[in-house]
Design brief:
Blueprint lengths: L15 H18 L2 E2 L5 E3 H8 L4 H6 L2 E3 L5 E4 L4 H10 L9 E10 L11 E10 L4 H18 L4 E7 L6 H14 L6 H9 L10 H8 L10 H16 L4 E3 L11 E9 L9 E5 L3 H4 L7 E7 H10 L13 E5 L2 H16 L4 E3 L6 H10 L4 E5 L1 H6 L2 E5 L4 E5 L1 H11 L1
Parallel strand pairs: 1-5, 7-8, 12-13, 12-14
Antiparallel strand pairs: 2-4, 3-4, 5-6, 6-11, 7-9, 9-10, 10-11, 14-15, 15-16
Helix pairs in contact: 1-5, 5-9
Bound molecules: histidyl-adenosine monophosphate (HAM).
The site of histidyl-adenosine monophosphate (HAM) has 28 residues, from β6, β10, β11 and α11.
Amino acid sequence: MYQAPRGTSDILPEEHPYWTYIEEKASELCRLHGYRRIETPVFEDARLFIRGVGEGTDIVEKEMYTFEDRGGDLMTLRPEGTAPVCRAYLEHGMHNLPQPVRLYYIAPIFRYERPQAGRYRQHQQFGFEAIGEGDPALDAEVIDMAWQLFARLGLKGLYLVLNSIGCPKCRPGYLAQLRSYYGKIAAGLCPDCQARLERNPLRLLDCKREACQTAAESAPRSVDYLCPECHEHFQRLRVYLDLLKLPYQINHRLVRGLDYYTRTVFEVQPEGEGAQSTLGGGGRYDGLIEELGGRPTPAVGFAAGIERMVLNLKRQGISIPQGPPAADVYLAHVGQGAKERAVELASWLRGNGVGAILSGSSRSLKAQLRQANALGVAHALILGEDEVKRGTVILRDMARGEQQVMTPEQALQALRGVV
Ligand code: HAM
């Protein structure tokens, strides 16, 4: 027997109301803030991510699904949504539109990770990006949207953590401090951190190993090394977040796993869980568009995994609206003539806006009605040879077990009344 590949899962119809619920809340949130939906291809030129996300990141080093296509080009299944949106911004000359350009997406993401609860090899992200403006009021808008998303879903007990990691002007000075600090205690660090020390010292701050965590507590803090512009940006952002009454905490160890971030980084985390259960994260990425070949263009954005939202909705026992029934009416038939009439009637009902499921078998009426019940359909239309001769139908209320003979038009009116 075949199974879904490791780290992937099927979303069965019973599960779908969660997804519909989240997607509707997300789309509504975007509409309220003027974000418009964009869809980019599932795969892109591998170089987009190597350049965009950064060569030293886990994503590029270990997690990308990259393949050579039949034309010999290297393609990568989208491991994150920001670089493709920036590529589309450039490709379609969106810098000519009023700035910032506000975009959102709901899209599958692929990362070859070690699967566990809330961590998959294919997951779905809801993300939004505001491209073309560097004002900290826009960082505040994006952070507020992220917070509102979870509030609208009904999730409780979440943390909003914030940090500023500076810009290409001030970060080298900070990284030198980090290297010097960690260099002195390198022998006590885990092998991963020892290897990262030269290449990517920021990532030492979010290592999960206990010894490294202790070391990170006393490590130099990025906010103490910000240049005046980055410092001012962070202060202004905090003023806006206070105005919006957002309950953020500053976490000096928050650095995020993608290289494109500048200045603001933030995450929303559930209570008492490690970073791998993070509900969503984002930040400013003022250098990315330029890295991809465009003019210097500041931008800020956020993304959250839908599977993790579903997981938290279930954990918190939040009830969500159930989807509509499979259909409004089930057409049962006895005899070939009735079956032919049922085929016609089902099509006619659907044309008139009534959802109709045609019994697929010619089994006994009892068996057909049992199936209607199992499908949770509220009404059945029953057709036998008599009904065909007289041009009538029998409408059955499945819950009450009551039946009435009527014309198809009367049945349509009755069904529309309940639709
Ligand atoms: P990220 O933190 O890598 O950021 O992913 C965003 C969210 O996607 C995570 O917080 C988590 O909810 C979910 N996620 C990530 N990996 C997995 C996985 N393996 N299984 C299940 N869920 C996962 C980004 O991707 C950035 N592009 C976010 C961003 C947008 N920054 C600026 N704009």
